[in-house]
Amino acid sequence: MCGIVAYTGSREAYPILINGLKRLEYRGYDSAGVALMQNNNISLYKCRGKVADLEAFCEDKNVESHCGIAHTRWATHGEPNDQNAHPHLSIDGKLALIHNGIIENYLSLKKELMNKGYEFLSNTDTEVLVHLVQDIQKTENVDLIEAVQLAMSVVIGTYAVVILSSDHPQQLIVAKKGSPLLIGIGKNEFFIGSDGAPMVEFTNKVVYLEDEEVAVVHPDKKLEITNIKNERKKPFVERLELQLEQIEKGGFEHFMLKEIFEQPKAISDSMRGRINTKKDVVALGGIMEYENKMLKAGRYIIAACGTSWHAGLVGEHLFESLVRVPVEVEYASEFRYRNPIIKEDDVLIVISQSGETADTLAAIELAKSKGATVIGICNVVGSSIARNTHAGSYTHAGPEIGVASTKAFTAQVTVLFLMALSLARKKGEVSLSMYHHYISELEAIPAKIETILAKNDYIKQIAQEFINCQNAIYMGRGVNFPVALEGALKLKEISYIHAEGYPAAEMKHGPIALIDKEMPVVVIATEQETYDKVVSNVQEVKTRSGKIISIVSEGDEIVKSMSDFCIEIPKTDELLSPLVASVPLQLLAYYIAVARGCDVDKPRNLAKSVSVE
Fold first, then answer.
1. Do residues 549 and 522 make contact, with C-beta atoms less than 8 angstroms apart?
2. How far apart are CA 135 and CA 141, in angstroms?
3. Which residues, in sequence order, are CB contacts of 119 under 8 Å at separation 6+?
4. What span, in angstroms and rounded, lies between the C-alpha atoms of 432 and 209?
5. DSSP 8-state symbol, 607
6. Do the strands 189-193 and 3-8 form a parallel or antiparallel pair, or are they unpaired?
7. Least confident range of 114-118, 173-177, 178-182
8. Would the CA dihedral through 317, 318, 321, 326 be positive or negative?
């Protein structure tokens, strides 16, 4: 949630900050603001709306500065408006602060500060932070760095914070717990961001702050890092694995469409180096150290949220079918709150595109406290999940900017399949001939998706028929039931049409009451074990005049003949069918949303990286 950008150095800060905010707008776009150091004074510009609104607001303002902070907000505390936008100023105007995360004890802190005479202009938890830092600095008679350390030791919650001080015009103070923050190192200049996007064209040297660390950034000094106990830490400089072209649209109208079309490459990259040339060994280097624990596991628990949870549901089928070990799939947001039974021989697999999902990080902490082994699957190198799990595998999907995940889903399913297949072969649950069959089938997936993408214009035509519908139902069975859930999620996320996914056989247990001639029903009816059952379910819908959009295997005649619209996809092994069946549903949702005039990349009320509970 929320995007943070900051800069100090010899360049003009404002263009860097604005461009950085545009690249981070997928993290929040309710409001935006900048604070610039000008002649040892802080100039503050902020407003409700998107970064473009802030840019228009600043057109006639003096924005010359070499040091500043900027923020794009996803509202938690306080509605989206000018007053609640970041940055927030201290009472004396000497401090400006931006914050990502949630301060859980902000109400008690706010009450204490109000009793001391502090006045609040916003409803945010963030304004509490800036007043708290100022109050500690004054009452404890300490310097700003120590005041930040002390403040961070009393707040409860998550934070990524950058502070600008008019008493130290070129200096920035940075602190982090639970929310991502990295520092880019240039020549006599520093860049700060929620991720690497704002700094990618300036430097590839970065330091990822660890929890409860505080950094002092000054262009004429070396980077200094301590923790909130004032213990000095040595900065660990890493290479930023990000290319500028990866975060640009590349000629596509929206990032979402670009990322849908990137799926063949994302899947290939997620396989690359993990299948040897003889196709007789699948190996994921990131989990080798814990492979024996995975092989001896009595149970796998998969925890995730949103689209990643749907990938986990596919993973349940993959692991149970191939590895023959029971699997439970949990919403990470519910997992920690129901006092789950976790044993030392359990393996928790957590899945997250960003690697920063707060609920998933909480699940990791709980499982580790019970002695379980935790394996991560995420897309962002150096993310909190990558750092906090025992081992794991990156998806190598490349940056995903569109808020509605597309290539993240198929890349996650690809890695789950590789993981399950590798373990199954080592356990002797899969014969060598089937092992080779699955590898060949997986390697064929990128080309099969290319053939689906070639139907882009046809799917766009189908979308035009459903732009005015208010509700939709998605049906699937077996391994494709999660695909129905994911298809419905995509539609409601970006088009604001209410949609629900169901196991096809469950229709007659209630949802069939919704079927009439106005109700579009999307059916995944690929060649699979339960195909004949799906045919019966489609007939039930057809009898009640539902409008059927079917996803079928090439050459299908039965379901096709019952459908109002039919999208054929290449025949694929049943366990791998979610990789191809999900793509036309992504395109369908995309084109319906575009036709309805929705902001596809930045749907209302949503943000990409959910780093708050």
1. yes
2. 9
3. 91
4. 45
5. -
6. antiparallel
7. 178-182
8. negative
Residues 337, 359: Cα–Cα separation, whole Å: 10
Rounded CA separation 478/192 (Å): 45
Q: Which two tokens stand for residue 312?
A: 């986990």
Listing DSSP states for 456-495 in one string gives: HHHHHHHHHTTTT-SEEEEEE-GGGHHHHHHHHHHHHHHH
Count of H-run helices and E-run strands, the chain: 20, 25
- What pLDDT does 277 receive? 61
Cβ distance 133 to 165 under 8 Å?
no
| Res 274 pLDDT > 80 | yes
The pTM of the full predicted model, rounded to 2 decimals, is: 0.80
Which phi and psi (to 5°) does residue 47 adopt?
A: -160, 160
**Cα–Cα distance, 137 to 423 (Å, whole number):** 56
Q: Which residues are designated catalytic? A: 2, 608
Apex 588 CA angle, 587 and 592, nearest 5: 115
Q: Residue 164 and residue 298: Cα distance in Å, rounded?
A: 52
Mean pLDDT estimate for the chain: 90
Phi, psi of 5 (to 5 degrees): -135, 140
Which residue ranges form the domains of the chain, and what is each CATH number? 3-246 (3.60.20.10), 249-443 (3.40.50.10490), 454-607 (3.40.50.10490)
Q: For residue 198, which of 50, 391, 7 has the smallest C-alpha distance?
A: 7
Q: What is the signed CA dihedral for 530, 532, 536, 538, rounded to 10 degrees?
A: 80
Tell me the per-residue pLDDT of 151-177, one tens digit each, with 9 for 90 and over. Answer: 999 988 888 999 999 999 999 999 998
